[in-house]
Design goal:
With 208 residues, the chain is an alpha+beta fold. The protein has two domains: 2-44, no CATH class; 55-206, Regulatory factor, effector binding domain (Multidrug-efflux Transporter 1 Regulator Bmrr, Chain A), CATH 3.20.80. The protein contains five helices and eight strands, in the order αααββαββββαββ. The protein has an eight-stranded antiparallel beta sheet. It is globular.
């Protein structure tokens, strides 16, 4: 640091640091740490395996859903929401095998604070079904979606989404549509606790 300061005609290293911070918005040490972190992140992205969509659906229909929303970290909020949704399903005596199950994580945990994260546990609304208590109704807008399959535990969904957004999307010619929600469709949920390797999850990524 001293050699750099003197080469740049600053009388002291502290004078160089002050000028650097005013110009760059960070100290030399902070600037170096930032770029070290960027290099590390870039390397991690390079090491992610590529993922390919099962298909690009150009005209997915609108999905009328019944849902329960919970706030907080997604692991905890999803468990609370699904516990309540399953009680609502049993109360209505619906056949579990004939329902379609969806999860909507509305917020990026890297951006929003944990208490602001919104998770919806949802089912495709059966004919004649009505909202009750915490159960509301919403429509997920259809249109163009890239659909991916994740096999195995829900704990691997984070990496699957990283592969989609950090690996596939930048290399594709597609444009992400921020106006519509990213959502999942769950299959074989009965194995979540007993045999998670049998779980199948479809990831729906909205595209323009």
């Amino acid at each position: 640091m001293t050699a750099i300061a003197l080469d740049a005609s600053f009388e002291t290293p502290s004078a160089f640091t002050k000028a650097f911070k005013q110009f760059m918005g960070s100290s030399p040490r902070g600037y170096r740490s930032l770029y070290a972190a960027i290099d590390m992140t870039t390397q991690k992205i390079k090491e992610l395996p590529m993922i390919a969509p099962d298909k690009i659906e150009t005209s997915l229909p609108d999905l009328p859903l019944l849902f329960i929303r919970k706030y907080g970290g997604y692991t905890q909020s999803s468990a609370k929401a699904w516990k309540l949704m399953m009680s609502f399903i049993k109360e209505n005596h619906w056949d579990l095998s004939k329902l379609r199950y969806f999860g909507i994580s509305h917020d990026n945990p890297e951006v929003a604070s944990e208490d602001k994260l919104r998770y919806d546990a949802a089912i495709l609304a059966p004919e004649g079904a009505r909202e009750k208590g915490e159960v509301g109704r919403q429509i997920v807008k259809g249109g163009k979606y890239a659909i991916f399959t994740h096999l195995g535990s829900y704990e691997g969904l984070g990496e699957a989404f990283n592969r989609v957004f950090l690996k596939w999307l930048p290399h594709s010619k597609e444009v992400f549509d921020e106006a519509r929600a990213v959502f999942c469709e769950y299959f074989h949920m009965e194995y979540a606790k007993t045999d998670p390797e049998k779980l199948v999850t479809k990831l729906y990524i909205p595209l323009k």
